[in-house]
Amino acid sequence: MxxxxxxxxxxxxxxxxxxxxxxxxxxxxxxxxxxQKQTQGVVIxxxxxxxxxxxxxxxxxxxxxxxxxxxxxxxxxISAQAISIIDVASGVxxxxxxxxxPMPPASTTKIMTALVALDLFNLSEIVTVPEATIEGQLMDLxxxxxxxxxxxxxxxxxxxxxxxAWALASHHPEGVGAFVALMNQKAKTLNLDQTSYSDPIGLDxxxxxxxxxxxxxxxxxxxxxxxxxxxxxxxQITVSNADYTNFYDLKNVNQLLGKVPGVAGIKTGRTQExxxxxxxxxxxxxxxxxxxxxxxxxxxxxxxxxxDWVFSNYQWVKYGT
Length: 321
Hints:
The chain is of the alpha+beta class. It is 30% helix and 22% strand. The chain has one domain (67-317): DD-peptidase/beta-lactamase superfamily (Beta-lactamase), CATH 3.40.710.10.
């Protein structure tokens, strides 16, 4: 015995799908009737599941970028063998010369030393100064005395104390070698392809190399750390050990601080092989520029001329103008 299906006219075709159709209609009504918010050209539909304060997605405004409006060459008297100049806000390269050539960084190495120390240690952490034979620029720390990480950073970044850098690296539980390994690891993380470290100080060594481009990129990254940005801009400071028995008057070795308007750091360096190195941060008219000069005959003169050249030739424009 066969069972016949009940007759259904064409106009009743929707009946088997009525539940799905009802769901889709409700979903459309929910989307249409839910509040909307206009956020810098992007319309974002909001619902009770996503409060407005969590769904406003502002589009970042690109930073103004520098344009050389005069196209004059840098002064011929500049002695630096490698130069990199970048705009901090936009990251635009403004000038470069031999920018990928690995060269001895000297004490500009201590920028990376500071970054790794801040990754590992608290500022208030106490370091016991190790017994070590270190030459060059020294705070004259005494073996066995105790000093905070913060004050050692001042000694390293303001006065460029080699013994301060060594004390910080020695504070790693596995010693200086492990600390330097972290410096090289961080260089890889930051894509510094022409960079290698063999110590935390910047002594002459075939394995201690940086290009001016890498150094400019590293410095731009380091200036995002408020501790480093503050310290490198200090002309002088007095710090003590943890027991307040020894006090150290630290004067910044960067001669441009307080003399050239807008200069706010960053780091000097000088060895027999490296010659004179300088990383300069200058802020004028609300625009920050980093200037790296390697293997100079007179680093401060070179940097001063380049600062004048940059702000005489470049103007900053907004995207779309």
